[in-house]
């Protein structure tokens, strides 16, 4: 048998990669086919149980008896426990009136279906988690964490970012689900306007509460994080690592209204972080500008030319003002101007 010549080794490597890709695709396709077949079986099984109980007036005892008989007949097959038979019955009864969900349930594993069925009751929310799990390949733990973090509710918020323009599709969607439109900082107990550094100190002092508000997966690295470039040094307000996005997340705090120059500064920070701090297997670093107010159109145009993923969100320090009183109280921007004026007077006195 002749060996492959060095000159043709690259061609062989391309050939090997193509074969490996086909093997992986074949295995994934086979696994999906098996899963779809199992879900279809459970659907028919649940339908039979419901129809027989209704037609013949059988009570709950029939499920226990059926479980024992099936386990005796097919001892090598798992899934015939009384608990699973009740879940199979519930699966059919809960989805029989929602045809738009029946196709989606076959695209994800049974364990994922159970999790969604038991924890989510709203039809639109179920559609979101079923579709996202199938499309993004969430593990059961990731799905559970997304549910706990209220990913569906977050997805409904009006968000400002450029993720879709600068990140791969799968990562852009996960990043969007992580970002909130507004963050509630009422836990700080602040009743008046504060300077950015004071806001930062308060957040660090209540770091556990802030991490909960950010959402599951954020890990704190540091505040006033030093970045050096030549003879210059810069300090980033807050730096985190996100376990599921597998990337650094930089947060800049602004106690006033969003300004276009903030996007340029964040873009610069992200370039430095990617060059100096990003690990070889990390995804691109994401930036979040957290400000008191924002104009959506201004944010949109500010992010158009930026090469790095940046999101802009607002924060809420005080309880929501009733609708009838809105417009009668000073805005956060008004408070910021008053604060800056007071600080200026102190410095000149």
TrEMBL record:
Start and end residues of each YhcG N-terminal domain: 19-153
Superkingdom field: Bacteria
Annotated ranges, domain YhcG PDDEXK nuclease: 177-329
Protein name, entry field: DUF1016 family protein
């Amino acid at each position: 048998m002749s060996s492959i010549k060095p000159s043709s080794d690259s061609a062989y490597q391309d050939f090997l990669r193509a074969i490996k890709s086909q093997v992986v695709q074949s295995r994934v396709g086979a696994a999906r086919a098996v899963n779809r077949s199992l879900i279809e079986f459970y659907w028919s099984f649940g339908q039979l149980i419901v129809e027989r109980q209704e037609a013949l007036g059988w009570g709950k005892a029939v499920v226990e008896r059926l479980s024992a008989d099936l386990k005796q007949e097919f001892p090598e097959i798992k899934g015939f426990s009384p608990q699973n038979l009740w879940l199979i019955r519930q699966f059919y009864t809960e989805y029989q009136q929602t045809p738009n969900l029946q196709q989606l349930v076959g695209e994800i594993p049974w364990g994922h279906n159970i999790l969604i069925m038991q924890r989510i009751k709203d039809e639109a929310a179920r559609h979101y988690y079923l579709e996202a799990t199938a499309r993004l390949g969430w593990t059961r733990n990731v799905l559970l964490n997304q549910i706990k973090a209220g990913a569906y509710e977050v997805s409904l918020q009006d968000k400002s970012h450029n993720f879709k323009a600068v990140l791969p599709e799968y990562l852009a969607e996960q990043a969007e689900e992580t970002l909130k439109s507004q963050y509630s900082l009422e836990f700080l107990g602040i009743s008046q306007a504060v300077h950015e550094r004071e806001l930062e100190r308060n957040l660090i002092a209540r770091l556990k509460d802030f991490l909960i508000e950010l959402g599951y997966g954020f890990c704190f690295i540091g505040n006033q994080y030093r970045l050096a470039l030549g003879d210059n040094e810069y300090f980033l307000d807050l730096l985190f690592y996100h376990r599921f996005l597998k990337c650094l997340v930089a947060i800049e705090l602004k106690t006033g209204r969003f300004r276009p120059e903030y996007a340029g500064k964040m873009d610069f920070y992200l370039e430095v972080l990617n060059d100096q701090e990003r690990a070889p297997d990390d995804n691109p670093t994401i930036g979040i500008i957290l400000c008191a107010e924002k104009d959506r159109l201004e944010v949109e145009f500010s992010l158009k030319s930026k090469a790095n993923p940046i999101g802009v969100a607002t924060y809420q320090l005080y309880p929501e003002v009733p609708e009838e009183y809105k417009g009668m109280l000073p805005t956060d921007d008004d408070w910021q101007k008053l604060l800056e004026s007071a600080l200026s007077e102190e410095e000149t006195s």
